[in-house]
Amino acid sequence: MIQKLKDRVLSGEHINKSEALTLSQCSDKEMLYKAAHEITRYYLGNLFDTCSIINAKSGNCTENCKWCAQSKHYRTKADIYPLVSEEEVLRHAHNSEKYEITRFSMVTSGKRISKNDLSKICSTFRRIKKETGLKCCASMGLLNKEVLSALKESGVENYHCNIETAPSYFKELCTSHTTEEKVKTLRAAREAGMRICSGGIIGMGESMAQRIEMALFLRELEVYSIPLNLLQPIKGTPLEHSRALSEEELLTSIALFRFINPKAFLRFSGGRALMSPDVQRKALYIGINAAIMGDLLTTSASQAAEDRILFSTAGYSLSENTDWIK
After folding, report:
1. What is the rounded distance in angstroms from the CA atom of residue 202 to the CA atom of residue 166?
2. Alpha-carbon dihedral 110, 113, 114, 115, rounded to 10 degrees
3. CB-based burial of residue 8 (10 Å sphere; 0-12 exposed, 13-18 middle, 19+ buried)?
4. What is the pLDDT along the chain (326 residues), one digit of tens a residue?
5. Using N-to-C axis directions, what is the helix angle for 247-260 and 208-220, rounded to 10°?
6. DSSP 3-state assignment of 135?
């Protein structure tokens, strides 16, 4: 079955939910991982996409996402501060370029940005484009086409908005906004001329079938940059006592995302610090071919220099153009 479905994916066909579930239950995990590896290399070769982010506005978010330390509904130790200065953002941007990271993103807490913040953010992006060779990304909540067009005009090429989990499970984790609002934002970003980036978090109590549902939903949206976060339970949030995924469950999930989204960059994101070096190397073999490097919002990550060694040792090139389909 693994060989048959791999050959179908390599021929340009899609697998369905039932077939993905069958793959998830196969006993020969090494064969599954090898097949996912072959799919990755067939469609994307040794390309590896890198990005870094700055938490440009933190905490006091009105939304009630159960996984998030920045929600004002929960008592956590997350920092709370308004939009950081243009100079502070530029400092981070220049540092990212120093480490040869390709993309740089400003990330802000809250459901959406204010008009006042938008003006400052656009000014900052214009300076980044003038002073560096970085490709610019933004992750600023649920925005309309007018705001997204202003970001695009200032130099933002990619817009990020995670769907977070399967549509059928989202309402169990957040009731202050919907999957539909997220999809509307992603479509508006495309209409404004930007590439989109969207993924989610695994390990929030969802089933393997719901992870497959999320992967299929992202395929339907034609997303080609998919951040895969591993939940890092944060004290004070409703998910602080969540069960940790087994290594096999995590690696199987990555393999299934690759089978379902063969042409996408699957991106190491939050929670990577919870993975052992061996698991990280295995994930890179299976299909992870992108990463957020450096600081990761409310959690920490490996240093950029160490990351470059890790990814290069896995056989990836970090110096080629990795712009994905819009």
Report:
1. 10
2. 180
3. middle
4. 999 999 999 999 999 999 999 999 999 999 999 999 999 999 999 999 999 999 999 999 999 999 999 999 998 988 999 999 999 999 999 988 988 999 999 999 999 999 999 999 999 999 999 999 999 999 999 999 999 999 999 999 999 999 999 999 999 999 999 999 999 999 999 999 999 999 999 999 999 999 999 999 999 999 999 999 999 999 999 999 999 999 999 999 999 999 999 999 999 998 998 999 999 999 999 999 999 987 544 444 447 778 889 999 999 999 999 999 88
5. 30
6. strand
**Spatial distance between the Cα atoms of 210 and 146, rounded to a whole number of angstroms:** 33
Is residue 190 helix, strand or coil? helix
User: Beta strands 49-57 and 200-202: pairing type?
Assistant: unpaired
Q: Is 75 exposed, middle or buried (0-12, 13-18, 19+ CB in 10 A)?
A: exposed
Q: Angle at which helices 145-154 and 115-131 pack, to 10 degrees? A: 30
In our burial notation (b when 16+ CB lie closer than 10 A, e otherwise), range 136-164 reads bbbbbbbbebebbbbbbebbbbbbbbbbb
> 22 — phi, psi (to 5°)?
-60, -45
Residue 194 in tokens:
């930007």
CB neighbours (10 Å) of residue 111?
A: 14
251 token code pair? 């690696």
Gyration radius from the chain CA atoms: 19
SS (H, E, C) 250-312: HHHHHHHHHHHCCCCEEEECCCHHHCCHHHHHHHHHHCEEEEECCCECCECCCCHHHHHHHHH
* CA angle (307, 308, 309) in 5-degree steps: 90
Residue 77 CB burial class (10 angstroms; 0-12, 13-18, ≥19): exposed
Cβ neighbours of residue 311 closer than 8 Å, sequence gap 6 or more: 48, 50, 284, 291, 318
